[in-house]
Amino acid sequence: MLAIRFHGRGGQGAKTASRIVGTAAFLEGFVAQDSPIYGAERRGAPVAAFTRIAKEQIRERGVIVHPDVVIVADASLISDPTARVFQGVDDRTVVFVNSSLSPQQVATQTSCSGRVTTLDLTEIALQRVGKRGALSALLGAVAGRLVGLHQESIRKAIAEELADLGLSPSVIERNQTVAAQCYETVQPVTIETGVPQPIVPVQLQAPIYEPPTRGTARISAAANSVLRETGGWRTFRPVLVPDKCNGCWLCFTYCPDGVISMSKDDRPVIDYDHCKGCQICVHECPTDALVAEREKEGEVAWRAK
Amino acid sequence: MAWQRETFKKIKQIPREEHVLPGTTLCAGCGGLEALRLAAKVLGDDVLYVNAAGCFTMLAAYPFTPFKGSWLYTTMGSAPAGAQGVRDALDVLIAKGRLSKEEDLKVVVLGGDGSTYDMALSSTSGAVARKLDFYYFCYDNEAYGNTGMQLSPATPYGARTVTSPCSLQHPAGATQEKKDIFELWRAHKPPYIATVAPRYPLDLEEKFARAAKFTGPKLFLALSACPTGWLYDPGETPEVAKLAVETGLWPLKEAINGDVTHTYIPKRKPVEEYLKLQGRFRHLFEPTVQTDVIAHIQSRVTTYWERVKQTEQGA
Predict the structure, then answer these.
(1) Cβ distance of B63 and A221 shorter than 8 Å
(2) Domain for residue B176, yes or no?
């Protein structure tokens, strides 16, 4: 049995990717099982999905604790303790990270013990599909390649799953084309199959609690949501071009999260720890004084404190 | 005479201070949060929010809260009943002298459209009939959004939701008409009702400022463009809200003791401009254009505004 675990942020397509792989495996005659974690799966929040593929009946259920393959749709999740991206990863686990960095760089930076491979899917999606966030077909193709599924079944599975989401045929076809490109580009890593996984007795571990100042709910708690940083949700960050700003206050007015404040001389000050990167300010700025810049690891740093 | 703003005339009058702090896990580009944040700038910090289960549950997800004031969490159907309890408790404490008048709080119900149009309708009706002194803030994203966009009575004709898909039997998607909650509320004759859209911030601020003068139920219906459910890029939230108003689909109006005034008369762009921007209406344009459905949506808007013209002469 092969166990694949997908990590992403709500809206990036981790769940659909897990379905694409499951469907593709099923089309090739394997037994397949896929399921997402049920929770508050909203845009930007960390989500996970699981696919199991086997030749025989799968009796295992639930979350995958010892994955053979881990697919990470968003590199910023690695530093997020709640996402637990590397849980159960050992030196035999294949880890794919959607990143512009090389596998070695990622492995060093994140001290990941698995066999890392990378590809900048976000950049490919932006260039070829023209949309941020639409990664499901690409992730599915990469995962399918890593576990050795055929390109044709991936193609069929993408059509099936994206049609279920109500996407138009032209969009599905574009996704298939770009997914095929990713299938061919991603650097495959050998997976040791056939080696029976030793059954490790599960040790009950005390969960890591936040310090009392953060983790303890008090009925008198007030305005403490700022302790939770949402800066890692961004694909793009709004950046001010000071010369162009006419001080009109529109970015401040329309920002849903209230992360833009106006300085004394009426210039926007952006709180990057909390800006979710919706780009409303960039869209609404009448003088194009706010521009969107791509967030990239190693270049622009948002880091969880 | 045309409606005029008395307090909020310039954008720089919008208070700088924030009352809904960042760090909530609502979606990036949430139109509902955009509206609430602007409303809270007038409501201030001395507020007790009574939240009906829904997307806004994520505002104060344990153990974090974006508010300096209090928060009470209720089921989808009972937020106005919760508000009654809170209001009564505050009144009793003030009457007994255990709380000074300066410490009084505004009681504000937060409810989505699923709650407002559907489950909490009877409890709202009761609260308004009892002349409860409270605010009701409905963030209307036209579906049960928190559970993944299922049809609600607020879903407009022609929209696709996960429970009203575009199918051979129903190529239009949702076949119902959006429930007119404004008129249902108005039938109760509360002192103040208004519709708002965050893309029109001065209109929104003005209405919350005006409502403060009234004792009794003050009900607000806020257009909450929803990138996640309406399927458009989060950066386009204000654009979608603008087109909803400019096409005439989302009328900006208020009703004082039942008398309606439209606070903004749009030039009425064709509804296609609004529909085309959103994935939930894509089936009306692809693979074939469903002209009859679009014409139906347009005719409803036209009829509405013709009637406005007749009843509000000179508005």
Answers:
(1) yes
(2) yes
Tell me, yes or no, whether B3 lies in a domain. Answer: no
Contact B29 A279 (CB under 8 A): yes
Domain A225-294 has CATH 3.30.70.20: yes
- ipTM over 0.85? The verdict is yes
Select from A15, A170, A257, A262 the residue whose CB has the most chain B CBs within 10 Å, as the one to mutate to test that interface: A257
B237 inside domain: yes
Quote the minimal CA–CA distance from B128 to chain A in Å.
30
- A-chain residues within 8 Å CB-CB of B22? 225-226, 230, 257-259, 271, 274
**Predicted model pTM:** 0.90
| Nearest CB neighbour to A283, from listed B60, B69, B236 | B236
Cβ distance of B26 and A278 shorter than 8 Å: no
Residues of B with Cβ-Cβ distance to A212 under 8 angstroms: none
Q: What is the DSSP track for chain A?
A: -EEEEEEEEBTSSHHHHHHHHHHHHHHTT-EEEEEEPPS---BTSEEEEEEEEESS-----S--SS-SEEEES-GGGGG-TTT-TTTT--TT-EEEEE-SS-HHHHHHHHT--SEEEEE-HHHHIIIII--SS--HHHHHHHHHHHHT--HHHHHHHHHHHHHHTT--HHHHHHHHHHHHHHHHHS-------SSPPP-PPPPP----PPPHHHH---TT--S-GGGS--GGG-SEEEEE-GGG-----HHHHH-TT--EEE-TTS-EEE-TTT-----HHHHH-TT--EEEEE--TTTS-----
Q: What letter does residue B281 receive in the DSSP assignment?
A: G
| Chain B contact for A217 (CB, 8 A cutoff) | yes
Q: Output the domain CATH number for residue B160.
A: 3.40.50.970
Q: Is A279 on the interface with B (CB under 8 A)?
A: yes
How many domains does chain B fold into? 1
Residues of A in contact with B67 (CB under 8 A): 222-223
Residues of A in contact with B236 (CB under 8 A): 283
Residue A295 has pLDDT above 80, yes or no: yes
Residues A233, B65: C-beta atoms closer than 8 Å: no
Instruction: For residues B133 and A132, give the distance between their C-alpha atoms in angstroms, rounded to a whole number.
Output: 45
Q: What is the pLDDT of residues B68-91, one digit of tens each?
A: 999 999 999 999 999 999 999 999
Contact B254, B193 (CB under 8 A): yes
Domain ranges of chain A: 2-185, 225-294
Domain that holds residue B278: 11-311
Q: How far is A147 from chain B (nearest CA, A)?
A: 31
User: In CATH, what number does A2-185 get?
Assistant: 3.40.920.10
At A118 the pLDDT is 95
Residue B2 maps to a domain: no
CB pairs under 8 A between A and B: 147
Confidence class for position B59, pLDDT limits 50, 70, 90 = very high
From the CA of B124, how many Å to the nearest CA of chain A? Answer: 27
Q: A59 and A44 in contact (C-beta within 8 Å)?
A: no
